Amino acid sequence: MAYRPMRFNRRAAVCLLLPVLGLVVLPSSAQPTSGSTGFSLQVQADGFFNPKVVRALVKAVEAGSQAQAAGLAPGDELIRIEGVVVPGAEASALKPHMEFVAGKPKRLAFRRPSGQEYEATLVKR
After folding, report:
1. Strand, coil or helix: what is 118?
2. Per-domain residue ranges for the chain?
3. Residues 13-55: pLDDT tens digits?
4. In angstroms, rounded to a whole number, what is the distance separating the alpha carbons of residues 6 and 24?
5. pLDDT tens readout for residues 52-83
6. pLDDT tens digit string along 71-120?
7. Strands, E, within the chain: which ranges?
8. Long-range contacts, 19-28 (Cβ 8 Å, 24+)
């Protein structure tokens, strides 16, 4: 039997990384969950044991949600959360910042594909 090196599977790494960040990516057909902020992220990471976030893109925005009212759109990149820079940060360091507590506002900064940056404050209900 020949030795085959294990190839890095980025999709598997993202699936493993999402629970570390405390994020849930909903399929586009999923119904909004009670208490949600109304958006989901697609997270790209580099590394396996101590992954770093390469980028986190808005994957979906629920119609009628506070995220939609704040102007979030699919393709926008999350660049800061509560002042902490997301791209290049270790996933384990971001986890406490990514957890939304009911009634406590979170300040998020996004960058549109055009390069325009904007901030949104979202509250888990």
Report:
1. strand
2. 10-26+34-123
3. 444 444 444 444 333 333 344 457 899 999 999 988 889 999 9
4. 27
5. 999 999 999 999 999 999 999 999 999 999 99
6. 999 999 999 999 999 999 998 888 888 888 888 999 999 999 999 999 99
7. 39-46, 52-61, 77-81, 84-85, 105-111, 117-123
8. 20/51, 20/91, 20/92, 20/95, 21/53, 21/91, 21/94, 21/95, 21/98, 22/95, 22/98, 22/99, 23/98, 25/59, 26/60, 28/60
CATH architecture of the domain covering 10-26+34-123? Roll (2.30)
Q: What is the CA radius of gyration of the chain?
A: 15
Burial 70-92 (b: 16+ CB within 10 A, else e): bebeeebbbbbbeeeebeebebe
Give residue 94's Cα distance to chain centre. 10
- Return d(Cα 86, Cα 76) in angstroms, integer: 13
Q: Whole-angstrom Cα distance, residue 47 to residue 13?
A: 8
State the residue for tokens 């704040």: 70
**pTM exceeds cut of 0.85:** no
